[in-house]
Amino acid sequence: MAKSAPPQEQKIFTTLSVTRNNPEYLQIPQENNVISDDLLLVESSPPPPQPSLDILPIGIKIGARDVLSGVLVKGAEDGSQAVNFEQWLVPYQSILKAFRFTETPMEDGSIQLRSPGLVTRFEPKFLIKDPDIGDALTIEEINRQLPVKVKFDIDSYALIFEGDWLEKTSRKQIEVTPVVLDGLPIVTPPDYAFSALSQNVNSAVANSGNLANNGSTTLGGKLGEFTFNTTISQPNFQDLRQAYLQSLKIQNLNKTTDHILGNQELFYPGSNNFGEFWGYTYIQRFGYESHIGGSAGDLNSRLINQDFVRTIQGTASEGTLVQLWQDSLLLGEYLVDKQKNYVFPNVKGNRFLIVSYPDGNLAATPQREIRILEPQYQQLPAGSSALFTSLGTWRNLNKGDFLGSFNGLVAGLGYRYGIWNDLTIGVGGFYDNKDLGFFGEVFYTNSDFPVALTLRAISPTANKPANILLTGNFKPSKDFTLAWSGNNQGSWQVQSNVQFSQKSKLQLSLNNSGLTTQASQFFSLLGISGNLSLGYQYSNSSRAFLETTMDWRQGDLALSWNSRLNSEGGWQLRNAVKWKNWQLGLTKSYKQFSRSRFYLPNSEIWNKLTIPYNSNGSFQDIYLINQVAKYRDGSVKDQIYARHLQPDHNSSLGVVAWHRNGNPASIPGQLNLTNWGWELGYGFGNQSSGLLMSVTSPNLFAGLRLQASYLGASFQNVPSGFSIGLNFNLNLNFQDGIARDTKNAGQFLESGGILVKTFYDLNNNGIQDKNESTFSENYKTLLKLNNKSLKDSKNLTLTSNGVLISTEPGKYRLDLDPSGYPINWEPQASAYAVQVAPGAYTVVKIPFVQTTTIEGIVRTQFGEPVNGARVEAININTNRTFFSITSPNGIFYLENLPFGEYQLKIGDLEINPRSLKINNLDSIPGNLELQVTAPVEEKPGTAKTVPNYRINGYLQDENGEEVRGIKITAVNTKSGETFTAVTDIQGFFRFENLTLGNYRIQVSDFAVVPANFTIDSSSKWDSSLNFKVSVSKQQLYSEAAGYIIRGKLQDKSGDRLNDFTVKLVDVKSNRELSVKTNVLGAFTIENISLGKYEIVVTQENKKLITKPSYIEINEESYPESSINVKISM
Prior knowledge:
By secondary structure, this protein is mainly beta. Among the domains are: 47-167; 195-303 and 388-407 and 427-487, no CATH class; 309-372, Immunoglobulin-like; 591-699 and 707-718, no CATH class; 850-923, Immunoglobulin-like (Sandwich); 937-1034, Immunoglobulins (Immunoglobulin-like); 1038-1128, Immunoglobulin-like (Sandwich), CATH 2.60.40.10. The chain has six helices and 83 strands. A hairpin with a 4-residue loop joins strand 32 and strand 33 (492-499). Keywords: Carboxypeptidase, Hydrolase, Protease.
């Protein structure tokens, strides 16, 4: 084994290698970059005496998996096992690479090492600076600092590391494409818009001949920054004088301020509420923002701020990796040090998950802690506040009065302030119809103790006494909660919930009127799951009760049992049996209010029947239902059923019927009777019997629906009844035309949306003219919002006026997917930045222009076709570029070229023609011929000029690996002219200014495949061609001797030294390469072969000490490198 070289003059110096990827050596940067003096390693004290260690080339394994080979370590073995294994030296860089560690310097001088399976701190002071293998760690130190087991396997001649964290793979990161709006055309909502109208009409006539006819009209729109909404109620269309103004709301809900006008809720508790409050409310927020738009119905929703900024802290053992999560987002992580504390400052939110990995082992099962710091609804973060005030009056409706009457003055002012995150206070006053009062609020939670308190107090007024309300809760764990409330009038309540286990719990409710307690136990036995509850109630009288629920399922058969018994003699049974499409149910009770399991959606018969209920008597319901057929979406189509219902002792009704649900996928306006809903049956009652029938239409047109029914049987002794009704719901949008809308006009008060109108721009002017129609084919695949396809979105609606996208107020990116483009049409812009505001749709008009494909050919001035030329067409209005690459025959295709005027271009060459104009289909050229003036050079003795060519490619060895720093020569076999190139670090070369002819390739004396190539008139001007040498790159490098080292020589003070001899001495062959420094201290050594060299500097035959001392040239080295050498005089 090779022995390490002894240190000279008791000083240790670092070997420097000209390498890019080899981790065992320091790195020389790419050519013309000089190593900084700061990178030179300082001298260190000699290490203590160590046992004799050899340099061993070994492998590194993770378990049975090979990860590295050819790693140079220092160690010893006797042919059967490792010798003095604990003192072996392993390169630090090899450990980083094998364990997939990344390094992060810490403030205390340590280094945080992170891999997919481990995060730990490393103390770099324990690194040993070895002159042969660089920074290294002993096996003993590896075992001390890292949770691994390591052994040496003599058979595979490798170090084997074991640890569960070594096999963990990286967590897959979900890449989220950022929404970029910069540079896009901006579309804003209108400042003023009468956006929508909704009309509702309900008409019904019975066999008595009486007509009921009522409805309402709603208008919505936008007035600058305000949105408005008004509804007029029409109780009787036959007498329009009964119409009245039901509501009028005008509001501007912004980030920091709100303005609300019209009818609304008052902000202070305990108002007299003489009628409906109409007035004006103003809100100003300080230190926080709210969302734009939305509802102002609940004032607290506009005052809240849940963006609490907190500091999350705790304790953990040293080396624990603590991660802080919120939902699925990692907010931060902390590697606990000797202080055993972790801190996450300035995090927003109220619910967190703290995950702790002992010893930083990400492969181990972590400890999880849910930290909930839930503030109360009305609390504000520390330092933020809100001011709110209202002024208005009470409104009373009078029959026949459109506006109603207004009386009394109402005014109020309130202020809330977050003293700190746990405490918010509020104060205010009000005047309400001669009642003058004041109120105060206190909202308290504790970050360290699970208690919450709310105190509200209203001062006494002329008509009301003082009112003090205290509420709170105590939640020490998810298994125990305690809540209470009480006021100064003597009303109070305490509720508790104790979860003993997942199967057992106790509930208790105690108030000033009585007591209720209930204990529940879940059980599972012989495939039966159920719940048993025992309770006690005391109010005016006391009673105990027992409730039982059981469920059993086996294949298609399912049974359900519910029962309740009480000590007063009341009882109830609710049972059901299901088998495939059949269901049999029984509900029977006595002195107990009961609800049947019978469920038949959209049944007009049972909706119109008046069923008497008597909770103190008996109740019985027996039914049998068969689901005969279903629609494709799984919803029920046809059902037959029989039901006998006896709600009390005096009435009963039995019904046998067939029920069909209307097709949910039916198209509005389609009169196909199979899409209608039907119900036909016969009823047998103790009072009356007869036919039962109902029919319900789908949406016929313009929001019109028809309902009709006939009831020939009933629970009471009433005559047969026939009724027919029309329901009319019409929503119209008036933006850029009139069209039906799925959105009610009242919804525009809180939100807006996007109306996309795509149209054919026939004259390419960007404006939709009268003769230019809209289109909606493939609209689901055409549109993308914020980088997400709307193909399966439920917020996408097609109307006669365009495509509606329902979305919240804000800024959005709207993209057009080419898969939805009409054939031979393209948009002028494929993406837009869209601003959405409440009150109106933002209308995005997208013109599509007609496109075509231009076919052509490019020839030189000699009439020869041009191969590989880039033909560009640049629109003179939009500056958009279209291009095509010519084929060997000079043919090109400019595809999807919009109509317009273009500049034609082929690089910087002269071409004819230079422009192209397409106005209509008749102006499209059948075959566009372009003549290009090719670059030429004069040849001696010829009267004709010839074009120049270029060859690019890669040089590879016999194994297909790229070789670098190798000279490659192309020789013209006719003229003998030579062209030379040197491969770069990727093996790439380029021959310039080649002319027509045959060429022979030379790489030293080695055989090359292909050995030659030819350039003729059909060749591309810029071609690619790779060559392969018939030897390995190691042999090629050893013979090439083509590396160059440039550098400068300096003394310790940095002064440059001239007329010094600089030698590179091959440590194996002792071959020397020698030069002298010039007056600037610079030197250049050429024709360097692969190998390791000692740097020797002499003056007057005296050898000097150098930094660095060694340099290595290997296959990863750059062809030309720079180095600074310092000497000790």
